[in-house]
Design brief:
single chain; 396 residues; mainly alpha; Sodium/glucose cotransporter; two-stranded antiparallel sheet; 2 strands; AA_transpt_TM; Black hull 4; amino-acid transport; membrane; transmembrane helix
């Protein structure tokens, strides 16, 4: 594989390697063993829609980004639709980062409390606020080159987490005696499981950038196959491993089940904590840039101050949402069902059909796109409904 293609492959792996890794054992417990076949089906569908996005880019040399594809297909409305889904997805992922950090830090340091006058913060809420204070200054940076370099450790971190969990089971005494259901398929839990599986493959907004960065663009489909295959193997291994260890008792993040006193557990948890801290600014910056673009004319010479204010308010708003909805798995299932399914499955198919026209498609293409649209629509409706109902139930 050429050096440039290998570098793009690493960037693709990083785009697909995220905190969804922690939720796949819980997804397996929700959907049953047969749901692993759906994980593979979701991976195949998302790989194919990634290919469709790049075919759309070949239709016009002026296309450089995902919103450009939306505009080429559906005009200004298409650009706004793609941008809206992408920005809301990024916002909720950033919120999920804070919830994840709060959950895992609370496991490492139980009983922590800080009191300032009449205000007292403890446990997960305390750590959500503290992490926000740490990441807020990183969002003020104009150049995120250093953070981008650090966040590239995501691929390595994902492997370390799986190996640490395996070590906890095989060496540190946790074992593989988790009590799971004997039912191979749980229909009631499928919407949640599918939402979480789709959340794992939310790298489509980056694919156009990766495609344009390649000198040998003909290698892109092969590169994407490698990325999806390796990530699916990693996700599948973690799902099976975590479920065999804890069965139906596996929590929304498998790291919360690990015995905190063990070194392997500490390695897994600290590695888990590193990625959200380094990636938070990368996730919220596109949202902040879009807001700043809207108010640039009114900012004038105070553009820098406006930028800091916008990004600080953005961080504060994610803190508020994280404190109000501290349900990591349910929130990420909602992101997967309502947003990722649109960005990764429905919109690529719709844009492709719109740009090239149905008559130009082969029968195999038509069947594949039709199947993806049906699957995506079912997940969008059922997954969004069940995720919202579970969040509402937790709040009541």
């Amino acid at each position: 594989m050429p050096v440039g293609t290998a570098r793009t492959c690493m960037n693709g792996l990083n785009a697909l390697s995220g905190v969804g890794l922690l939720t796949v054992p819980y997804a397996l417990s929700e959907g049953g063993w047969v749901s692993l076949a759906l994980l593979a089906a979701v991976a195949a569908a998302c790989w194919y829609t990634g290919i469709l996005l790049c075919r759309c880019m070949d239709a016009d040399d002026a296309i450089r980004t995902y919103p450009d594809i939306g505009e080429r297909a559906f005009g200004r409305t298409g650009r706004l639709l793609v941008s809206a889904f992408t920005y809301v997805e990024l916002y909720l992922v950033a919120t999920g980062f804070l919830i994840l950090e709060g959950d895992n830090l609370d496991k490492l340091f139980p009983g922590a409390r800080v009191t300032l006058g009449t205000v007292s913060l403890a446990g997960k809420r305390l750590f959500v606020v503290l992490v926000a204070l740490v990441v807020a200054p990183t969002t003020w940076l104009r150049s995120l080159g250093v953070l981008a370099y650090v966040s590239a450790t995501g691929v390595f971190a994902s492997v370390v987490i799986v190996l640490s969990v395996l070590w906890a089971a095989a060496v540190d005494g946790v074992g593989f005696s988790g009590r799971g259901t004997t039912t191979p398929l749980r229909i009631a839990g499928l919407p949640t499981a599918l939402g979480l599986y789709i959340f794992c493959y939310g790298g489509h907004p980056m694919f156009p950038t990766l495609y344009t960065s390649m000198k040998r663009k003909s290698q892109f489909p092969k590169m994407l196959v490698i990325c999806f295959l390796l990530c699916t193997l990693n996700y599948g291994a973690m799902a099976v491993l975590g479920y065999l260890m804890y069965g139906d008792g596996v929590l929304s993040q498998v790291t919360l089940n690990l015995p905190s006193a063990r070194l392997s557990s500490k390695v897994a948890i600290y590695t888990t904590l590193l990625n959200p801290v380094t990636k938070y600014a990368l996730v919220v910056t596109p949202i902040a840039a879009a807001v700043e673009e809207r108010i640039r004319g009114a900012a004038g010479k105070g553009a820098r101050a406006v930028s800091v204010a916008v990004r600080t308010l953005l961080v504060l708003s994610t803190v508020a949402v994280a404190l109000a909805l501290p349900f990591f798995a349910d929130l990420m299932a909602l992101v997967g069902s309502m947003l990722n399914v649109a960005v990764c499955m429905l919109l690529p198919c719709a844009c492709y059909v719109r740009i090239f026209g149905a008559p130009s498609m082969s029968s195999v293409e038509a069947v594949a796109i039709g199947g993806i649209l049906v699957l995506g629509s079912l997940v969008a409706v059922t997954g969004t409904y069940y995720s919202l109902m579970k969040i509402i139930h937790e709040l009541v």
